[in-house]
Amino acid sequence: MKPARLFGTVVVAGVGLIGGSIALAARQRFVADRVVGLDPDGEALEVASFHGVIDAAHTAPGEWLREADLVVLATPSRRIAGLLEEIEPFLRADALVTDVGSVKAPIAREAMRSTFVPGHPMAGSDRAGVRHADAALLENAVWVLTPTSRTDEAATAKVEGFVETLGARPVRLDPEQHDRLVATVSHLPYVTAVALTRLATESGEAEWTSLLAAGGFRDLTRVASGSPVMSRDMVVANAGAVADAVDGLIGELERLKEDLADADAFGSVAVAAKQARDAIPVVRRSVLGPRPEVVLAVPDTPGQLMRITAACGEADVNIKEIEVLSIREAGGAVRLAFEDQDTLERAVVALSAAGFEARQRPI
């Protein structure tokens, strides 16, 4: 018996790094019967299909969207409002819609649909594109939802369930509060990385600064290696809050500049900064090298783990890791990892023969 899915059809509009990671996680964790990609970039859809990120692909909205139970808008922030307007005529009234834009107030003001739940997963990478999609990117990540007074509470609760099933942690914030906070902890670091990179490379001594750039400089400027277009859209869409954050940083730098003449004063500030930085929780994902993995759909009935291990044992397959990803009333998913690809393939044969639906996770 297959466990019931949260959704029949999930549509991910914008199959890039984040959209692709969401689609991949939704497929691997058996959240939906079908995950469909919507993107005008045919090549991105081909890559997503080839790597098993999506089940079907479309380059334009159409009547096929009537089947959508949940639509995730994963385009750059400046395009989300327009895309929502474009797909609206094709959506059922009860279809849920959420987005992953890094700026929330503008879209929260413009969106009139009661089942639209604005969101922002606090996850990312300095690599772009669906080729780098990784379901693990969302594991343990904070995923902000910013419902407004127009948002249906049941819709918000169901999107929260979707987020939790993907392995992330949903939290609710006011849209304006979200934008003010991410201006400091997300957008300002990008602006600062750009400024530091320019300072080092446009000083007339770029050859030497590049040679001497060590781990500290590389860590501080890592985010400058991300997509310039997406980063531009992110900071420009939140320009007011980012400008305030820049002013705050300038003020802090001016105070630190004054403290340079007093070792004790600067030392006190440095100690306080270390304590504050060390208190920031670490989001732990995988600390080991990747192993070939398979995810199984598992009904919520007694003895399922015993059936899994028995099937592998009878096939002389050694399981290196086992993890219960999610359990709902009608079932959930279990992740298994193996030493190598050959062992995984033998396990898939054995588990399929035992009646389990298995999906491989790409390394």
The CATH architecture name of the largest domain reads 3-Layer(aba) Sandwich
Q: Looking across the biggest beta sheet, what order are the strands in? A: 3-2-1-4-5-6
Figure out the total of helices: 13
In the CATH scheme, what's the topology name of the largest domain? Rossmann fold
Q: What is the CATH C-level name of the largest domain?
A: Alpha Beta
Mind summarizing the main beta sheet? 6 strands, parallel
Give the distance, in angstroms, between the N- and C-terminal Cα atoms. Answer: 29 Å
Number of domains: 3
* Estimated helix fraction: 40-55%
| Quantity of strands, as a count | 13
Which class best fits the helix and strand makeup?
A: alpha/beta
Mean pLDDT level: 89
**CATH homologous superfamily (4th level) name of the largest domain:** NAD(P)-binding Rossmann-like Domain
Taken from the alpha-carbon principal axes, the silhouette is globular
Rg, rounded, reads 23 Å
Percentage beta strand: 15-25%
Low-pLDDT ranges: none
What pattern of helices and strands is seen along the backbone? EHEHEEHEHEEEHEHHHHHHEHEEHE
